[in-house]
Amino acid sequence: MTVRLEPMTPAAFDAYAARASLAYGDELAAAGVLPPAEAREKAGTDFSSLLPQGLDTPGHDLWTAYADDEVVGLLWIWQTPESTGPYLHVCDIEVVPGRRGQGYGRALMEAAERVARERGAASIGLQVFGNNAVARALYDSLGYAVVRAQMKKQL
Fold first, then answer.
1. Which of 124, 133, 135, 131 lies closest to 151 in space, CA to CA?
2. Does the first or last residue of the chain, that is N or C, have fewer Cβ atoms within 10 Å of its Cβ?
3. Helix axes 104-118, 133-141, angle to 10 degrees
């Protein structure tokens, strides 16, 4: 299965930005990183600082993913230089709720890897919360390895 990536439109970006900031805040809180109110605030700040110029932010690419003519998700990547060569970071993948569990997450990650190779990246990476078992299983199955872990214990 493959997906077709098309540059995200401004209208799609506005809708994504609104829900992504909320979703990231929820993920921060669910993972125990921050209390809910602080998590929502941090999520909004982080999103704005990563994409200060929205779709025109240098080094960032946001695409809408299609299967045939149906929107099935999105992909957001950030390409940064590193001492070991260009690095491509997957900031977000999203599969629309009605299409989850059908292989589109894998197809989006494979598309990100194709883009990374085409751009000469030496590596590709991402961050995932420890409580996101579905995403972690996908990344494990694609050959991603943990290179850093942050651990926390509630007292």
1. 131
2. C
3. 50
Look at residue 154 and tell me whether its pLDDT is greater than 80: no
- CATH value at residue 9: 3.40.630.30
pLDDT tens sequence across 109-128: 999 999 999 999 989 999 89
1 pLDDT band (50/70/90 cuts)?
A: confident
17-53: b (≥16 Cβ within 10 Å) or e: beebbeebbebbbeeeeeeeeebbebbeeebeeebee
pLDDT in tens, 35-63: 888 988 888 899 899 999 999 999 999 99
Say how many domains are in the chain.
1
pTM: 0.89
Half-sphere exposure of 23 (CA within 13 A, CB side): 11
Stretch (H or E) spanning 26: helix 10-30
146 domain residue, yes or no? no
